[in-house]
Q: What sequence folds into this?
């Protein structure tokens, strides 16, 4: 595309089938402790 | 739902429900903003008037690209997650993480401490090894098939009960093979009691350590003082530097708190970087609105500017080959959290619980000591099931105020504790926090686009 560049992102809809294992880190155990932010958490499967 | 913004020279479009991130030119940016609510002919006419220098053929190209993305489910996607959010809420979850309050006491007397100098509105106390072991047993027996279990040694100041921390790790490790579990331990400390034993043990056993430092000496020492009123900066910084140096490539975060006194916290983050730390986190203070540390309406534009300054500086440093990490700007667009995690959030009160020195269970560390928020204890498990169900119902779709928000799949509806402290209701909205959160996500995504541009052609950021 000439005017629009689509950055590669996770297929959110598809993750409905592949996700939900719950093995990822609990967000408040990492560094914040005072505000929720799941966006910066990594998928445990993607880490492997 | 889409969100459009301009930052650091980039025109950015986010499509909430597909998660698409688009870097677009000026013409496409305006076409996208007009797309809903205008016919093709109207868009061409409006664009021709606003941008007489852009040929109609270019506008037509933009429209074709928009339509291609829309057809491909990457732009203007409808919300497909309403039912899934309910299913995610209804799913039985297991406990997988504990915030273990091994010490409700502290050797510092920080004026802004949300834990009331470690006491959490109660008496000073330390957790016995017997209770810590029982907490580990509770976690294992309530974790179902979850393999990865997390325990954060928290306080107060956990190093004031260090032997119990070490013995708890040994006990948990002894259960791993038998129960098919993998424990991940973390430590959150003010640094005062760090010594070689703490460093050696932590660097061997802890997957992450969170080290509290507020930045510039005068900022840190104004709040983080001992009971004689002396600042702790000079005592802890050399210890933190040794700790981090010996940690090698294992994870750590320097974690600061910014308040009304340092709404210009970019300088504090840079100070941490100047001290040689590269993994950095800086959080807005949590306190009552009438507290002198509370961030004000007047602070807001200053705070938002700090996030932009930080993003630009981080890009500069990355380009020059000496990057720093900011916790809230970590964003893995391709390997980030699945839709379930985005819908359900932090899991407080269900997957994640806090344990007090006496063995009481709370939904998270920020609710400890709050009347009416005790969930049960490590001996009898969760007995306040109505409270658990209220937390289980929290999701990106449970707050009316989130319905039209583009960021809800990044924040999952926000922090229940923030909502409670701001509104008295865990399903409330902490609007100030939302504004900061959205700014951080905008910055983080802009950085991803900028880094993508650098990778592609090595051009300027």
A:
């Amino acid at each position: 595309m000439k005017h629009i560049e689509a950055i590669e992102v996770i297929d959110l809809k598809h993750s409905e089938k592949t996700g939900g294992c719950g093995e990822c880190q609990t967000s408040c155990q990492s560094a914040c402790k005072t505000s929720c932010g799941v966006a910066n958490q990594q998928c445990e499967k993607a880490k492997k | 739902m889409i969100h459009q913004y301009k930052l650091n020279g980039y025109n950015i479009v986010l499509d909430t429900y597909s998660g698409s991130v688009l870097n677009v030119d000026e013409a496409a940016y305006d076409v996208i903003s007009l797309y809903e609510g205008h016919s093709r002919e109207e868009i061409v006419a409006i664009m021709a008037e606003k941008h007489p220098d852009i040929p109609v053929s270019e506008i037509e190209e933009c429209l074709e690209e928009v339509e291609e993305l829309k057809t491909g489910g990457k732009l203007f996607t409808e919300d497909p997650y309403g039912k899934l959010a309910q299913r995610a809420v209804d799913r039985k979850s297991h406990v997988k993480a504990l915030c273990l309050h091994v010490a409700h006491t502290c050797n510092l007397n920080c004026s802004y401490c949300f834990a009331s100098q470690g006491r959490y509105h109660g008496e000073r106390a330390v957790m016995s090894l017997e209770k810590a072991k029982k907490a580990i047993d509770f976690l294992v027996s309530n974790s179902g098939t979850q393999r990865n279990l997390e325990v954060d040694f928290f306080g107060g100041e956990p190093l004031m009960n260090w032997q119990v921390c070490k013995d708890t790790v040994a006990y948990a490790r002894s259960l791993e093979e038998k129960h098919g579990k993998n424990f991940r331990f973390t430590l959150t400390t003010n640094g005062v009691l760090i010594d070689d034993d703490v460093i050696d043990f932590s660097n061997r056993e802890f997957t992450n350590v969170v080290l509290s430092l507020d930045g510039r000496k005068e900022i840190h020492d104004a709040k983080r003082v001992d009971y004689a009123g002396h600042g702790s900066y000079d005592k802890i910084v050399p210890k933190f530097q040794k700790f981090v140096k010996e940690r090698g490539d294992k994870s750590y975060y320097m974690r600061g708190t910014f308040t009304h006194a340092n709404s210009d916290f970019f300088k504090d983050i840079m100070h941490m970087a100047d001290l040689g730390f590269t993994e950095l986190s800086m959080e807005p203070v949590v306190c009552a609105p009438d507290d002198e540390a509370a961030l004000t309406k007047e602070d807001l534009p200053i705070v938002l500017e700090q996030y932009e300054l930080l993003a630009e500086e981080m890009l500069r440093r990355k380009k020059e080959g000496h990057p720093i990490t900011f916790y809230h700007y970590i964003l893995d667009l391709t390997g980030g959290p699945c839709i379930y995690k985005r819908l359900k959030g932090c899991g407080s009160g269900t997957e994640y619980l806090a344990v007090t020195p006496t063995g009481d269970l709370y939904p998270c560390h920020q609710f400890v000591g709050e009347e009416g928020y005790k969930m049960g204890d490590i001996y009898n498990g969760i007995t306040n099931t109505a409270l658990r169900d209220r937390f289980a119902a929290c999701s990106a779709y449970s707050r009316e105020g989130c319905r039209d928000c583009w960021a809800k799949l990044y924040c999952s509806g926000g922090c229940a504790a923030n909502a409670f402290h701001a509104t008295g209701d865990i399903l409330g909205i902490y609007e100030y926090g939302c504004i900061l959160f959205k700014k951080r996500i905008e910055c983080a995504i802009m950085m991803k686009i900028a880094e993508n541009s650098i990778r592609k052609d090595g051009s300027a950021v």
Remarks:
- The interface with chain B takes residues 1-13, 15-16, 18-20, 22-44, 46-47 of chain A (CB under 8 Å).
- DSSP finds two helices and one strand in chain A.
